[in-house]
Design a protein that fits this description.
CATH class of the domain at 20-108 and 117-125: Alpha Beta
CATH superfamily of the domain at 20-108 and 117-125: Phosphotransferase system, mannose-type IIA component
Number of helices: 6
CATH architecture of the domain at 20-108 and 117-125: 3-Layer(aba) Sandwich
Number of strands: 5
Radius of gyration: 17 Å
Distance between the termini: 47 Å
Helix content: 40-55%
Largest sheet: 5 strands, mixed
Shape: globular
Length: 155
């Protein structure tokens, strides 16, 4: 629906910009939640995609959002759903002309981890790897952690 204006970069060294792209308002809400926990997140932009938009319009908005946060170190595009139109648009932008990476399955723990990374010293691919591992670690089944409920009848 609209893109969120990024907070200004506060470093003299170029850092990897981040664009979070989702269906409807998911990205906006997750980034806002992360900001309430960790404070400012410079160089992070949001694009919320409406089901009424076509891929050309989405591509233009994501491209614009990337240009707003790219200060020379590249851009990481985080999308909500693998195989979706936002994912396909993001993948089409990896044309080899600049540093960039796409990470799908964005979740709040990834955004919280993002706030702790030094994006001026890591590449988009290195940041994506760190966040991917964080996201995977954050997905848990409660009963497997407590051992109090038998899962699938086997224990």
């Amino acid at each position: 629906m609209g893109s969120m204006t990024p907070e200004p970069t506060r470093t003299l060294n170029p850092m990897v910009g981040v664009v979070v792209v989702s269906h409807e308002q998911v990205a906006f809400s997750m980034v806002e939640a992360a900001r309430r926990v960790v404070g400012t997140m410079p160089g992070v932009n949001v694009v919320c995609v409406s089901s009424a938009e076509d891929s050309v319009a989405i591509t233009q908005r994501v491209s614009h959002a990337c240009s707003e946060v790219d200060d020379g170190a590249g851009v990481l595009i985080m999308v909500d759903v693998y195989g979706s139109t936002p994912f396909n648009v993001a993948m089409s932008m990896l044309d080899g002309t600049g540093a960039g990476e796409v990470l799908c399955g964005v979740n709040l723990p990834m955004l919280l981890k993002l706030a702790t990374l030094d994006r001026s010293r890591l590449s988009p691919a290195e940041i994506a790897q760190e966040l991917c591992e964080c996201g995977r670690r954050s997905i848990r089944i409660g009963s497997e952690l407590t051992g109090k409920i038998v899962v699938g009848g086997i224990r």
